[in-house]
Amino acid sequence: xxxxxxxxxxxxxxxxxxxxxxxxxxxxxxxxxxxxxxxxxxxxxxxxxxxxxxxxxxxxxxxxxxxxxxxxxxxxxxxxxxxxxxxxxxxxxxxxxxxxxxxxxxxxxxxxxxxxxxxxxxxx
Length: 124
What we know:
Layout: H1 7-23, H2 27-53, H3 57-80, H4 86-108
Helix pairs in contact: 1-2, 1-4, 2-3, 3-4
């Protein structure tokens, strides 16, 4: 895995994709559902950073995983309300699933093993 393919880079790419999509939401949903999706993704990013710098990685990774699951449901709701197109929903689902797989892999990795976050700021 290349240095630029760490979990923070994937979250950054996801945020770069999702923020312009959220700005297209109607005004009544932009500041409710759109803001909530963006906030949850930023929380996932924060939990991953905390996990990288913490001794107790598991607790932060479990929080990141739970927050990502909430985000999945919010994105599904936005799609159900027709706030995002089928194509956009597919891209978002793929990107969120990829981040989820990376978090899951990090959770299963033995302590001290090279993780998906080996170089947290390599691409930033």
